[in-house]
Design the sequence.
């Protein structure tokens, strides 16, 4: 028997929600934050669920996201949504991972509209094959109801597969930015030009009816080319869901997401970013390179017990853009950190641009990178972003890149002179 479409609400109260889901390898958290901020700008109470946890703004007073402490599980998910419903919330912005989709998440919660950001190699330890990873992402769109909207990245070839996999009665809308490459089909909203500054990102839109409605440009608080893509996606899906251009403009100016190109220090400029795939590192480094007046210095490593195949490419993409690169420990889990680092370095040496240094201790690597920085340099500490723990051996030990950078820069470990 075919699965009913749209997915039936799991509880009676769930019928009341308007839900927008966001999936893809990179950009889920930022896109979801922009969508949630747009909902809030339209004076709706919102529940936002994703990598950063469960957050609620019930619109009862001044905007402010309240973190709800629940276990990241199916029960925790439903508990938070029911709690939000009890507070009068009827709008939800949800990150949707391939892990959840592979476990039939899209059959257990009804999504009204969905966004595909992009796809690049990740989580293949779980999915085993690239095809399974892509098929898992497609589940979010396969189970949308007739007439609902799928928002797809026209500059990512994998979106074409999702388009083919979806039922024909789902409304498709497309976005694209030249920072990812040429659009592979016609778009509803596209960037003509992207300007990145330390203060944010300006997206000049190519002419289209939707671009005209939005005032021909998007202004984003977040810094980076990838946030231009995320803003395009958020603008398209929020427009499809009926939100006004004014609410969308306000939503796109939401604060930077913790650990996503988060500027922690300006003398020297030190950025913490969650980038932990080859594609994400390439884009983060490209953004930092545009902001640097002199050198780009990067601290990075790869996690243990998963996605072995991306270690060399992570090193290669970083070394091709950085001037100085510190290879260090990320979350080694049960693997030997030296073995992981060797694979990263092997990939980096093939790029032959950056000077490569290996410092296994992450705290020491960050300190060395900041100490090496001079006026005009940009330091990127990549891989862990918002995380506050380091997985080593079967333990999660306290560790925060953000806290380390703040400690080092406030203690004067960074030189101030050129």
Sequence:
């Amino acid at each position: 028997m075919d699965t009913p479409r749209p997915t039936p609400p799991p509880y009676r109260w769930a019928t009341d929600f308007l839900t927008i889901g966001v999936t893809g390898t990179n950009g889920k958290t930022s896109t979801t934050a922009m969508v949630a901020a747009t909902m809030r700008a339209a004076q709706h109470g919102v529940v936002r669920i994703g990598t950063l946890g469960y957050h609620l703004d019930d619109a009862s007073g001044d905007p402010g996201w309240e973190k709800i402490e629940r276990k990241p599980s199916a029960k925790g998910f439903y508990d938070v949504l029911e709690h939000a419903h009890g507070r009068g919330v009827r709008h939800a912005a949800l990150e949707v991972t391939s892990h959840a989709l592979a476990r039939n998440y899209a059959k257990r919660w009804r999504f009204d509209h969905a966004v595909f950001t992009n796809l690049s190699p990740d989580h293949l330890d779980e999915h085993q094959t690239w095809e399974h990873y892509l098929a898992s992402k497609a589940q979010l769109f396969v189970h949308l109801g007739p007439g609902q909207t799928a928002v797809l990245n026209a500059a990512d070839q994998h979106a074409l597969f999702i388009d083919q996999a979806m039922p024909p009665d789902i409304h498709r809308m497309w976005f694209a930015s030249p920072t990812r490459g040429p659009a592979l089909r016609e778009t509803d909203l596209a960037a003509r030009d992207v300007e990145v500054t330390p203060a944010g990102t300006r997206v000049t839109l190519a002419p289209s009816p939707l671009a005209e409605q939005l005032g021909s440009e998007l202004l984003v608080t977040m810094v980076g080319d990838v946030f231009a893509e995320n803003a395009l996606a958020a603008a398209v899906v929020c427009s499809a869901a009926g939100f006004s251009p004014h609410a969308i403009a306000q939503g796109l100016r939401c604060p930077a997401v913790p650990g996503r190109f988060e500027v922690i220090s300006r003398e020297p400029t030190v950025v913490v970013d969650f980038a932990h795939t080859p594609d994400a590192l390439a884009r983060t480094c490209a953004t930092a390179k545009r902001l640097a007046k002199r050198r780009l210095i990067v601290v990075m490593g790869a996690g243990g017990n998963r996605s072995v195949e991306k270690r060399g490419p992570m090193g290669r993409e970083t070394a091709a853009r950085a001037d100085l690169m510190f290879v260090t420990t990320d979350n080694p889990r049960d693997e030997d950190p030296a073995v992981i680092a060797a694979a990263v370095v092997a990939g980096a040496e093939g790029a032959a641009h950056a000077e490569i240094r290996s410092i296994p201790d992450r705290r020491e690597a960050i300190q060395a990178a900041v100490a090496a920085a001079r006026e005009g340099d940009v330091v990127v500490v990549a891989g862990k972003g918002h995380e506050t723990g380091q997985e080593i051996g079967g333990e999660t030990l306290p560790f925060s890149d953000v806290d380390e950078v703040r400690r080092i820069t406030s203690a004067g470990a960074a030189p101030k002179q050129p």
Notes: The domain at 262-410 is CATH 3.90.190.20 (Protein-Tyrosine Phosphatase; Chain A). Residues 413-418 have pLDDT under 50 and may be disordered. The CA atoms of residues 90 and 141 lie 21 Å apart. The radius of gyration is 21 Å.
